[in-house]
Design a protein that fits this description.
The chain is α/β, with parallel strands linked by helices and 273 residues long. It has a single domain, classed as Rossmann fold (3-Layer(aba) Sandwich). It is 36% helix and 16% strand. It contains 10 helices and 10 strands. Strands 3-2-1-6-7-8 form a 6-stranded parallel beta sheet, with helices on both faces. The chain has a two-stranded antiparallel ribbon with strand order 4-5. Helix 2 crosses helix 3 and helix 5 packs parallel to helix 10. The protein is globular and about 55 Å long. It binds magnesium ion and zinc ion. Magnesium ion is lined by residues 9, 11-13, 179-181. The active site is at 9 (nucleophile), 11 (proton donor). One of its GO terms (molecular function) is phosphatase activity. Its cofactor is Mg(2+). Substrate binds at residues 20, 95. Keywords: Hydrolase, Magnesium, Metal-binding.
């Protein structure tokens, strides 16, 4: 499936938690983070709290140790390795940060399976403090997306538009996009009929797709947990865009099933729960 590009969100998609929450919760910073959020955007609050942890003597090694305990299912590891072995190109588009993502992927031996990680830049400075900056510097200008579901520091839709522009040159025919969050809605709108959107059922992106289904061109294939993610993803990879698709959806979201008219065989609606 050399023509397939798979784009993964990271938090609550590859790992089964939010990496930012995982770190500050385990370092006793939950309450402090909520305070910071009263006056600062999420991304800036994350940079600030990492600075405060550093001042308290919490080392970057300790942060790594915590990141390495973030839950990552064997089904996800298997899905990533199988997709790669089948010739797909794998990328990440995430509102976490590069240090967290690389640390976790390295720990599970997965980093080399990904050709690109689009996220908030971060690095460990000379003093051993993690610095996190926004993917888009919103203090000088807005990223310009008016959808209202993207945070000021990152519009994943803009990233997907850039990827789509370069796809033809690279001989890629379709994108399979997997995500759970509000920020994954904007990129889902940039996908075309030949692409496939895999929203996590009953998570924010799913609710948004269900409520605004008329604007999505891509096929929608829901998943609820890592086991189902693996199953659905491998089925999509092994199918091709002109064959009959089994549209997995939730009984409460019938409206999100795209109407396809080009298929030579009867459409099958597979309600999985
Ligand atoms: Mg997510
Ligand atoms: Zn956007």
């Amino acid at each position: 499936m050399a023509g397939t590009l798979i784009v993964f969100d990271f938090d609550k998609t590859i790992i089964d938690c939010d990496s930012d929450n995982w770190v500050f919760d385990h370092l006793g910073g939950t309450k402090r983070f909520d305070e910071l959020l009263l006056t600062l955007p999420w991304n800036t609050s994350m940079d600030k709290i990492m600075g405060e942890f550093h001042e308290q003597g919490i080392s970057i090694e300790k942060v790594k140790e915590i990141l390495n305990t973030a839950p990552l299912s064997l089904h996800i590891i298997s899905a990533i390795k199988s997709a790669y072995a089948l010739g797909c190109e794998l990328r990440i588009v995430s509102d976490a940060n590069l240090f967290f993502i690389e640390t976790i992927l390295k720990h599970h031996g997965l980093l080399d399976y990904f050709s690109e990680i689009n996220t908030n830049p971060s690095y460990v400075d000379n003093e051993g403090r993690l610095r996190i900056s926004p993917c888009h510097n919103f203090t000088t200008s807005s990223h310009g997306c008016g959808l209202g579901t993207c945070p000021p520091n990152m519009c994943k839709g803009i990233v997907i538009e850039r990827i789509k522009k370069s796809m033809l040159k690279e001989g890629k025919q379709r994108i399979i996009y997997l995500g759970d969050g509000k920020g994954d809605y904007c990129p889902s709108l940039k996908l075309s009929e030949r692409d496939q959107m895999m929203p996590r059922r009953n998570y924010p992106v799913w609710d948004l797709i269900c409520s605004k289904q008329h604007v999505l061109s891509a096929e929608i294939h829901g998943w609820a947990d890592p086991e189902e993610l693996e199953r659905v993803l491998l089925r999509l990879i092994n199918s091709n865009s002109t064959s009959v698709q089994l549209i997995s959806t939730d009984a409460t979201c019938h409206a999100a099933v795209p109407v396809t008219t080009h298929e030579p065989l009867p459409k099958v609606l597979n309600v999985t729960n």
